[in-house]
Every structure is written in C-alpha cells, then in structure tokens.
Amino acid sequence: MKPLNPKITDWRGRSVWLIGASTGIGEALARELSALGARLMLSARNADRLSQLARELPGALILPLDISRSEALQPSAQEVERLLGRLDVVVFNAGTYQPLRAWELTPQNIRATLEVNLLGVMDGVAAVLPAMLAAGQGHLVIVGSVAGYRGLPKAAVYGPSKAALINFAESIWLDLAPRGVAVSLVNPGFVATPLTAQNDFRMPALISAHEAATQILAGLARGEFEIHFPKRFSRFLKLLRLLPARLYFALVSRTAR
C-alpha cells in the first residue's frame, strides 16, 4: 500500500527545526541528523546546553525557546524561516514528565505538564503552518508516547497529555495531507533520558536515546504516520487497547502491584 507520508531517505540540505533538542531523544536526533547532512536549528529552554551541543555539530544554529510561552512561538518561527530560508521538517520533541497519582494532582502540576506537552505543541504547529501551507510542502513530526494509548499508574497528567497529542496528530493529518503537508506521530516506549530517570520502577523494554532516534529516522524513511517502538512493547500495549475495561484494569492493577 502507498505510504501515508512522503518518504524521507535523504536529509542532505533539508532544513530541520528541532524543538526539545538539548537532552534525550532530541539530542540524539540532532546528532543523527547532523551526520546525515541536515541544516539544523536547535531549540530548547536550556541555552547553555544548546550552545554546547551546537559546538559539536558543524553548522547547527540555536534558538533558545520555552514552548510553553505561546507569545514566543510566532516570532521564533519567523526567525527560523529567515535563518534557514524554509521549513522542511519541524520536530516537536519538547516535553516534560512528572510521575503523578490522582491524589497528587494540583492546578499547578496539571498546567505545568499540559502547557508544555500539549498546548505548546499545538501552538507551535499553528505558528509554523502558514509558511508550510504557502509553500505546499513540509513535514510535522509530533513526539507523543505509548502512555497515551490507555490510562496507566503514575501518569494522571502525562498520559492524558500524550493521548490528546495522538488525537491531534490524527486530526491534522486528515486536514493537511491533501494540502501537501505531512504529519508523523512518534510514540516511544521507555527511553533512557533524564525524564525517565525519575521512575522508581522497572521499565520494560527500556532503550537508549540513540536507538530511539534511529527508530524515528527509519520510520520517516518508510513514510509511516505512526512510528512506535520498541515493537515488542508498543505492540503489546496496542493489544491492551482492545481489552474491555474490566479486564484491562485487572491486568494493569496486578502488574502495578
């Protein structure tokens, strides 16, 4: 069958804005894309870490950015377009994670997650879309999580933020594919990053950030809409989505204990 997105097999000369590039998957992606010849603009909140990374990647530019500040996104998008000349690919990898149970919810920690993981991504898409639609080309890569498939313990805010991203990516693919703009959704399982280092439980099928970056690039090369990995874990969670609530709750509760 025809792929849902154009295949990206050659990154030489492609202009890529990578948001959330300072650590973890974003840093690993930046290194891989630089080696493949992409023209990079790297953004994150940590300006010092961005500067250090850019010194290691020839030609990479940096633009410090807090994606939760909606007023900063439009000017930032315009600056990236000015410096790179065009936007071929924008990767929305910025995210935050705090393990939370229901009784730990506060208005502050709810908004701290949603403003980065969901609203920041949606605002960012709104900021870059006009240029892509005017050009009739472009590729949006949205990093979600398998935690968005169904409810999980300690993910009372993180999980819903990623579930909303999954729905958002599906919705905008339907709107944008006919107009020449591609949308890819990345749903990783457990990846060894500073964020997952907070977890106090054994993480099944844990992979490195480098392996995650490799999987993302392979999925883009195949033209996939949803790029999920590692398959031995993500496929199992996809199967769990098919279970009725009574069986799902029983299984997950037993596993959590």
TrEMBL record:
Pfam families given in the database record: adh_short
Keyword hit for Oxidoreductase: yes
Domain of life: Bacteria
InterPro entries registered for this protein in UniProt: NAD(P)-bd_dom_sf (IPR036291), SDR_fam (IPR002347)
Keyword Oxidoreductase: yes
Record family assignment: Belongs to the short-chain dehydrogenases/reductases (SDR) family.
Protein name, as recorded: SDR family NAD(P)-dependent oxidoreductase
PANTHER family membership: DEHYDROGENASE/REDUCTASE SDR FAMILY MEMBER 7B (PTHR44196), DEHYDROGENASE_REDUCTASE SDR FAMILY MEMBER 7B (PTHR44196:SF1)
Organism of this sequence: Uliginosibacterium aquaticum
Keywords from the UniProt entry: Oxidoreductase
